Amino acid sequence: MKIILLGYMGSGKSTIAAFLSEKLQLPCFDLDQHIQEKERMTISSLFKTKGEIYFRKIEHQVFKEMMHSTESFVLSLGGGTPCYANNHLYLNGDGIVSIYLKASIDQLYLRLKAEKITRPLLGNQSDEGLKDFIAQHLFERSYFYNQATYAIQTDLKSPQEIVSEIENLLI
């Protein structure tokens, strides 16, 4: 079984993937980390030196390869992964369970405000404009995120509570 976690940046995908993989005794992969290892470059550097189009092409190739693997795993996607190159078509199918970790705009704003420097798409945002940017992005991406098998509201929940909810969905 492949368990895919998706959602906006800052929604907790990487954290939940690590907890979930430990609980289910499955390998854990982070798509962005996988891309960084393959390209030998950070995501920020990829965006700066080669551009977003190049990054999205590599992202699609790596995601597609992973989805064609026969291995079972937990995979956290980048926030934009489902929204490009028809990647959302890989979110469902035999042996695939995808879960949209849905966080509110206010919660995402609080989490991302301190991380702007490390997030390529947020670097130019002022604190005042960040909330509007998140709201606009969520609106644009909601169709793709809602292609997931399940959606879980994550606000005010601990990672353990979210993992328990996911486990209940998998039963």
Detail the topology: elements first, then pairings:
Layout lengths: L1 E5 L6 H12 L3 E3 H9 L3 H25 L5 E4 L19 E7 L2 H9 L13 H19 L4 E4 L5 H12 L1
Parallel strand pairs: 1-3, 1-4, 2-3, 4-5
Helix pairs in contact: 1-6, 2-3, 4-5
Q: Quick recap of the structure?
A:
The protein is α/β, with parallel strands linked by helices and 171 residues long.
Shape: globular
Uncertain ranges:
none
> Based on DSSP secondary structure assignment, what is the total number of beta strands?
5
Query: Please, what is the oligomeric state?
Result: single chain
Give the amount of beta strand, in percent: 5-15%
Overall pLDDT: 94
User: How many strands, what sense, and barrel or not for the largest sheet?
Assistant: 5 strands, parallel
C-alpha Rg (nearest Å): 15 Å
Note the gap between the termini.
13 Å
Description of the molecule:
The protein is α/β, with parallel strands linked by helices and 171 residues long. 50% of the residues lie in helices and 13% in strands. The chain has helices at 13-24, 31-39, 43-67, 105-113, 127-145, 159-170; strands spanning 2-6, 28-30, 73-76, 96-102, 150-153. The protein has a five-stranded parallel β-sheet. It is globular. The mean pLDDT is 94.
